[in-house]
Amino acid sequence: MIPAIKVKKVHKNYGASHALAGVDLEINTGDFFALLGPNGAGKTTLINILAGLALASSGSSYVMGHNVVTSYREARRMIGVVPQELVFDPFFTVRETLSLQSGYYGLKNNNSWIDEIIHNLGLADKENANMRTLSGGMKRRVLVAQALVHKPPVIILDEPTAGVDVELRQALWRFIKQLNHDGHTIVLTTHYLDEAEALCSRVAMLKQGKIVALDSTTNLINASTGCSVRLRLTSDILPPELQPLLKTYDAGNYILEINDYAQIESVLATLRVMQVQVLEMELLQPDLKEVFAKIMGSVDNLELL
Ligand SMILES: Nc1ncnc2c1ncn2[C@@H]1O[C@H](COP(=O)(O)OP(=O)(O)OP(=O)(O)O)[C@@H](O)[C@H]1O
Ligand SMILES: [Mg+2]
């Protein structure tokens, strides 16, 4: 099967700075994929290259098998990008903006799909409002709508939920999940790692223009060694034997890092010997946020070596 996205040895230089330093990436058709990384990692640069908005310095990229440079038009038709920055023409209404965008793709009679998008993104009340009169969150809804107007098989959302209220977030994810269910490939960048964890089945992490992790969300989380246990104790002082395990202490809660479940037994045994009782105990599984911090941290350490 043709991958939805294929990126081969892509470099992007801005003068002396290396925004992308050799990226290889394949995203399968039908995936719900997260592209994560700290500010400046190169996520938007990579998306711009895929959308034909920026040229790679070297390497090649394909959308549904179409080279983004040599088959620009075909590749562009396959992809819908919700950009990170709010850009729009202030003089048109919401519906006009979407009709114009349809025209750009040579689509006539696109009104029933436009109706559906407007409805699903909660834009019905605003469809005749001028773009310049919309609030920031409403403008972002229109950006999402614009990306979907030609029903692209690959949908890329570059931080679509930045500055967006809870109601739209929920409506947006319901709609995007439905599109994924219908076979569209979804690529999401976000700094809300809980959102990425809940939605995306595969994850790539980018740092300083390089992919530093690429796996299924479950594998990344399971491979992360150890979990934590939260304890509330009858004593104000943690027995010295347990001090090396202490990760944080906050308002009466001790968070201890353990390697495996068996270690809980020895923690409890130590507490018993010291006659300290457990008031509350909770196991904390590692989440994507923790994995992200660990991976980004260990990459830093590697660079220092
Ligand atoms: N047009 C440009 N000219 C010069 N440098 C640029 C340009 N666009 C991006 N860069 C640089 O390339 C690097 C990657 O930027 P990019 O916008 O791709 O990061 P990002 O991962 O999307 O970050 P964020 O999470 O902040 O959106 C940064 O160092 C940025 O300053
Ligand atoms: Mg960005």
Descriptive account of the structure:
With 305 residues, this protein is an alpha/beta fold. The protein folds into two domains: 5-221, P-loop containing nucleotide triphosphate hydrolases (Rossmann fold), CATH 3.40.50; 225-285. It contains ten helices and 14 strands. Strands 6-7-8-3-9-10 form a six-stranded mixed β-sheet, sandwiched between helices. It has a four-stranded antiparallel β-sheet with strand order 2-1-4-5. β4 (58-63) and β5 form a beta hairpin. The site of adenosine-5'-triphosphate has 12 residues, from β2 and α1.
Low-confidence spans:
301-305
Overall morphology = elongated
> What profile does the largest beta sheet have?
6 strands, mixed
Bound small-molecule species: adenosine-5'-triphosphate, magnesium ion
What integer value in Å does the Rg equal? 24 Å
The portion of residues assigned to helices is 25-40%
Q: How many helices in DSSP terms?
A: 10
Sequence of secondary-structure elements: EEEHEEHEHHHEHEHEEHEEEHEH
Number of strands: 14
Judged by helices, strands and strand pairing, the structural class is: alpha/beta
Report the CATH architecture of the largest domain. 3-Layer(aba) Sandwich
CATH-wise, what's the superfamily of the largest domain?
P-loop containing nucleotide triphosphate hydrolases
What is the count of structural domains? 2
- The quaternary state of the protein chains shown equals single chain
Report the β-strand fraction as a percent range.
25-35%
